[in-house]
C-alpha cells in the first residue's frame, strides 16, 4: 500500500485545471474585447454617417433655397432625379463598405482562431518539456539522495561499532564511556534525520510504503511508552497512558506497525522535547463512533493558536533559531496517518501545553 497523497500528480492536475480555467477566462475576455471593439467601431461608423447625412441635408436645404429663388436655372424634377441617383449611390457605397467590414472582421476572427491553437500548442509543448526536465531532476535527486543516504548509514554504522569497541575496553567510571554514549546518541539522531529525509522524498513521489495488518493498537502504544519512558524519566517527566474508553487495553485496528510506531515516536519525542522537568505527558486511546482516537497531551510550552495548522508543515520550527531537528516529524506523521485513512490535528491543553490528536478507522473484533 502506498501513500494516498501523490502530491506531484495532484499539483499537476491542479495546474492543468487552473490552466483550463484561465484559458476559458481568456477566451471569454477575448470575445468580450472583440465584441466591444466591434460595437465601438459600429458606433463610430454610425456617428460618421449621421454627420455625413447632416452635411448632405444642410447642402440640400441650401440647394432648395436657391431653387426657389427667381434666378433658379434647373427645374425641380431634374433636381429630385439627381438626388435620387445620389442617394442610391450613397446606399450602394455604404452597403459595399459594410460588406468589406464584415469580411475583414470574419478574416480577423478566423486568423485569431488559427493563431490561438498554435500559441496554446507552443505553451503545452513548453510545459511538457519543463515537466520532463523537472521529472528528470527529481529522479536524479532521489537517486543521489538514496546513494548518499546508504553511504552515510554505512559510515555511521562504522562509527557505532568503533564506539562499542571503545566502550567494551573502557573500565567502569572511565570518561571514555561518557563520550562513547554521546557518540551513540548523535549517531542515532543522524540516522533519524536521514530516515526523515528519505521519507519526505517517498511522500513527494507518492511512494510512502504501507503494509497494514490487523493488530491491537493498545499494544503498540504500550511498546512506544516502554521505549521512551526512560528518556522521559531522565528529564523528570511523567509519561502515562489513560484508557478513556474503558476498553480494557484492547483496541483492534488495521495499521502498519512500524509506520504507526514512527508516528507515536515523533509525537512522544516532541512532547518530551518541549515539556520542562516535572511536567506530565498523557496518552489517551479510545474507540468511539467507529474510529480509533488517540491523543497526546503535555504540560509543555504549548502551540500558539495561529500556528496549530502550521506545525504539520515540513521544516516547521518553534523558532528561527531552533536547531532541535529538521521540523519534519509532524509533517511525516500527518502523511502516515492520512495514508491510513485517518486525520490529525493539534490543539491547546486546558491547563496549558499542547494536545496532538489523530484518528484511524477502527476494525472491531468479529463476533465469536
Label this structure with key terms.
single chain; 368 residues; alpha+beta; two-stranded antiparallel sheet; 63% helix; 12% strand; elongated; disordered N terminus
**Count of all domains:** 3
Mean pLDDT value: 79
Globally, the shape reads: elongated
- Which runs of at least 5 residues are low in confidence (pLDDT < 50)? 1-5
* Estimated radius of gyration: 40 Å
Number of strands: 7
Structural class: alpha+beta
CATH-assigned fold name of the largest domain: Heat Shock Protein 90
- The termini sit apart by 29 Å
- Strand order within the widest beta sheet: 2-4-5-7-6
What oligomeric state do the depicted chains represent?
A: single chain
List the total number of helices.
6
Amount of helix? 55-70%
Work out the strand percent.
5-15%
Give the CATH class of the largest domain: Alpha Beta
CATH architecture identity of the largest domain: 2-Layer Sandwich
CATH superfamily of the largest domain: Histidine kinase-like ATPase, C-terminal domain
Taking the sheet with the most strands, its summary is: 5 strands, mixed
SSE topology string? HHHEHEEHEEHEE
Question: What would you say this structure looks like, in words?
Answer:
The structure is a single chain. This protein is an alpha+beta fold and 368 residues long. It has three domains: 15-138; 141-204; 213-361, Heat Shock Protein 90 (2-Layer Sandwich). Helix content is 63%, strand content 12%. It contains six helices and seven strands, in the order αααβαββαββαββ. It has helices at residues 7-68, 76-169, 175-204, 217-234, 257-274, 329-339, and strands at residues 213-216, 238-243, 252-255, 280-288, 291-298, 343-348, 354-361. The strands form two sheets. It has a five-stranded mixed beta sheet with strand order 2-4-5-7-6. Helix 2 (76-169) packs antiparallel against helix 3, helix 4 (217-234) runs parallel beside helix 5 (257-274) and helix 5 packs antiparallel against helix 6 (329-339). The protein is elongated, with a radius of gyration of 40 Å. The model is unreliable at 1-5 (pLDDT under 50).
Amino acid at each position: 500500500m502506498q501513500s494516498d497523497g501523490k502530491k506531484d500528480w495532484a499539483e499537476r492536475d491542479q495546474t492543468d485545471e487552473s490552466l483550463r480555467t484561465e484559458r476559458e477566462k481568456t477566451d471569454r475576455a477575448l470575445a468580450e474585447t472583440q465584441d466591444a471593439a466591434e460595437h465601438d467601431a459600429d458606433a463610430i461608423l454610425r456617428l460618421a454617417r449621421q454627420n455625413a447625412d447632416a452635411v448632405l441635408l444642410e447642402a440640400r436645404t441650401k440647394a432648395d433655397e436657391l431653387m426657389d429663388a427667381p434666378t433658379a436655372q434647373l427645374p425641380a424634377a431634374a433636381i429630385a432625379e439627381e438626388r435620387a441617383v445620389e442617394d442610391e449611390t450613397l446606399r450602394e457605397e455604404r452597403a459595399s463598405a459594410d460588406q468589406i467590414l464584415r469580411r475583414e472582421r470574419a478574416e480577423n476572427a478566423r486568423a485569431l482562431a488559427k493563431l490561438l491553437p498554435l500559441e496554446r500548442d507552443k505553451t503545452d509543448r513548453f510545459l511538457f518539456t519543463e515537466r520532463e526536465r523537472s521529472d528528470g531532476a527529481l529522479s536524479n535527486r532521489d537517486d543521489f539522495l538514496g546513494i548518499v543516504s546508504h553511504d552515510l548509514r554505512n559510515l555511521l554504522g562504522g562509527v557505532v561499532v568503533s564506539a562499542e569497541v571503545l566502550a567494551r575496553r573502557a573500565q567502569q567510571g572511565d570518561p571514555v564511556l561518557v563520550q562513547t554514549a554521546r557518540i551513540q546518541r548523535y549517531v542515532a539522531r543522524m540516522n533519524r534525520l536521514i530516515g526523515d529525509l528519505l521519507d519526505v522524498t517517498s511522500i513527494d513521489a507518492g511512494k510512502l510504503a504501507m503494509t497494514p495488518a490487523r493488530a491491537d493498537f493498545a499494544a503498540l502504544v504500550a511498546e512506544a511508552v516502554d521505549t521512551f519512558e526512560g528518556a522521559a524519566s531522565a528529564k523528570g517527566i511523567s509519561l502515562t497512558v489513560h484508557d478513556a474508553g474503558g476498553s480494557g487495553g484492547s483496541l483492534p485496528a488495521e495499521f502498519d506497525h512500524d509506520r504507526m510506531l514512527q508516528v507515536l515516536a515523533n509525537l512522544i519525542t516532541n512532547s518530551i522535547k518541549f515539556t520542562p522537568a516535572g511536567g506530565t505527558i498523557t496518552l489517551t486511546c479510545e474507540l468511539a463512533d467507529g474510529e480509533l482516537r488517540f491523543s497526546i497531551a503535555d504540560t509543555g510550552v504549548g502551540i500558539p493558536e495561529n500556528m496549530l495548522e502550521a506545525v504539520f508543515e515540513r521544516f516547521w520550527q518553534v523558532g528561527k533559531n531552533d536547531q532541535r531537528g529538521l521540523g519534519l516529524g509532524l509533517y511525516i506523521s500527518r502523511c502516515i496517518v492520512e495514508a491510513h485513512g485517518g486525520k490529525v490535528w493539534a490543539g491547546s491543553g486546558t491547563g496549558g501545553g499542547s494536545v496532538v490528536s489523530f484518528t484511524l478507522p477502527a476494525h472491531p473484533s468479529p463476533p465469536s
